[in-house]
Design a protein that fits this description.
single chain; 184 residues; mainly alpha; 3 helices; rod-shaped; chloroplast; hydrogen ion transport; CF(0); thylakoid; ATP synthase subunit b, chloroplastic
């Protein structure tokens, strides 16, 4: 070890003291260089490293806090969405139940109105049949009456002569004259 310390302390060992150069003796230079570099880093880099670590810690804490706040808002929004979903599902069930009952009510109303309409149509049909029957009966009556009248006129015209005709007219005038005296 004396060799190592002598090389730093003894000026005879530094042959190029006036110039810059590299000492390639690894055993002599590395522990010292490393201790100097580590010492400088610790002395000067302590504040910078501490600031960097503090800033990093602060950013991590802020990120965690923001994440927790965001998580809280998201959970709150999720609960609101679940409540709205339950409300909408309840309303949908009510609409479904009301819709089914309304459909059944409309179905019954339609069936009832159809029965009423069919009953009215049946009544109209029966009235129309009665009217047509009455009209047909009246037409038959008129034809029978016309044929009977034509037959009677034909019979009268063939059977009546002028003298019988005059007697019938006089008898009818006498009857009307007698009726007139009774009404006066």
């Amino acid at each position: 070890m004396k060799n190592v310390t002598d090389s730093f302390v003894s000026p005879g060992h530094w042959s190029s003291a006036g110039s810059f150069g590299f000492n390639t003796d690894i055993l002599a230079t590395n522990p010292i260089n490393l201790s100097v570099v580590i010492g400088v880093l610790i002395f000067f880099g302590k504040g910078v490293l501490s600031d960097l670590l503090d800033n990093r810690k602060l950013r991590i804490v802020n990120t965690i806090r923001n994440s927790e706040e965001l998580r809280g808002r998201v959970v709150e929004q999720l609960e609101k969405a679940r409540a709205r979903l339950r409300k909408v599902e309840t309303e949908a069930d009510q609409f479904r139940v009301n819709g089914y009952s309304e459909i059944e009510r409309d179905k019954l109303n339609l069936i009832n109105s159809t029965y009423k309409t069919l009953e009215q149509l049946e009544n109209y049909k029966n009235e129309t049949i009665q009217f047509e029957q009455q009209r047909a009966i009246n037409q038959v009556r008129q034809r029978v009456f016309q044929q009977a009248l034509q037959g009677a006129l034909g019979t009268l015209n063939s059977c009546l002569n002028n003298e019988l005709h005059l007697r019938t007219i006089n008898a009818n005038i006498g009857m009307f004259g007698g009726m007139k005296e009774i009404t006066d």
